[in-house]
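Subgroup meeting minutes
Present: P.N., E.W., G.H.
Scribe: E.W.

1. P.N. recapped why we're keeping a running log of single-chain structure predictions: easier to compare across weeks, and new members can see raw inputs and outputs side by side.
2. G.H. added today's entry (512 aa).
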Amino acid sequence: MSIPKVVGIEQEYAINVKPAEELSPFQASCLLVNAYARKAGLREPEMSMLWDYGHETPFQDIRGALFGRKSGRDITRKEDNLLINAILPNGARLYCDHAHPEYSTPECLSARDAAACDRAGELILAEAVKLAEETLPETDIKLFKNNVDHQGRSYGCHENYLMDARAHQDCFVDNPGKARRILIPFLVTRQIFAGSGKPGPSFQISQRADFMDCLFGLDTMFNRPIINTRQEHHADAKRFRRLHLIVGDSNMSEFATILKVGTTQIVLQMMEDGFIRADLSLKDPLRAIRQVSAGFDAEIELEDGRKTTALGIQRRFLELAVEYGLKRDFPHVPELENILKGWDDTLNGLGNLKLSADFDLEDDPSDLTKRLDWVLKLWLFNRYRRKKTLPWDHSQLKVLDLQYHNIDRSEGLFYSLQARGMAENILCDNEIEAFVCEPPVDTRAWFRGKCVQKFPLELYLVNWEVVGFDHGDTRRMVPLLNPLKGVRDRFQQAFEQARDSRELLDIIVKLH
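Output recorded in log:
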């Protein structure tokens, strides 16, 4: 039986700093991390809450290979660790990754919560920019939630899903053909509703598709794989594994994010339960992902020689999901009915979409323009192109594309369109703002977040799977190896009763 598909999103933000000669992207990113950490009360002199890299193994492949000379990062100096990391009261992590800021959401059970936590990350980064510019008034920092800067660099939007250890081993190590016949076709074609669109020699529906170089692999910056095979599960590896996907686009649309995550949870549950017998293997997945990006109705070839479209493959997955639900139900997919309906409505809408060089709102009878980033962009770009008589590869369209992803709500084109009713609002402001300060209540993120909120002076290290307390005479570690434990219902009373972390741990021992 499959397990709940706990999910987290890691969003890399493109950064632009002016004047560039005064502050490097790395320095600006560190400034953002620490400006927000100070505002959250996490940079008091007596604090030493560090991010623990001990459980990270970026050079270890699940297929058994070890690359490089070491199996983890070495950030031993407190000053260096604090410079690039902030563990937040909502259970998330804000940090500088190479030369850009990155926000990792707390673990979520539902696609809706994941989308709200991802959107909360935008608010956190926007506040960080405001605080940084107050510190350096002559500096102008812009952040963009996108995947390409039109100068050859790509920024990732990574998805992480909890899987049963045996199922993960079977799909990606012992029998990778299973992933190739099920998950790869789904991910290659998912872009028809999850793509965020971009201009170029012609319009493409995905920003990330052109950067995919292989099916499975360890790298995330070069030779990028559709499925990342890093052996870094952040949980009890005997029971759980992490599926790390780097193929997806960064979505501004709330609907697109929810549909992207929710449908993936559904497909993973069916795959884990061995329900999908159909062989949808693509003859050339890397060619297919580019074909679909260039035209969502493009004909792609299956391994057995049949030809179909991304829409046809997605319809097949939807049919299987409905059939599965009738036979076994989806106990682990919150808001299942809404996701299935959104999936069905979207595929029907794409089937009725009339794409042309003059695409306009009347060519979209299902109102997908309000729901999908790439359709909204296509309308926006076409309107601008007609007005200015511009080719698709004109630099002004690239500027427009970037501004669509600007997270400054007073400047970002997406937010302007949303305010005018051109983009659907699914999440309410209170729902998003709550996740700025509070963690989800139904995963281990709640325990981590509450420790940061209530006992920050006593924490000396944190990562996804452990929190460590320094009691002066001793140090005590609390393992969080099960992402489904550490929830509010189980531990709220303990946090209310405990006056310090010693008492908290004593109460927890009694609970067990």
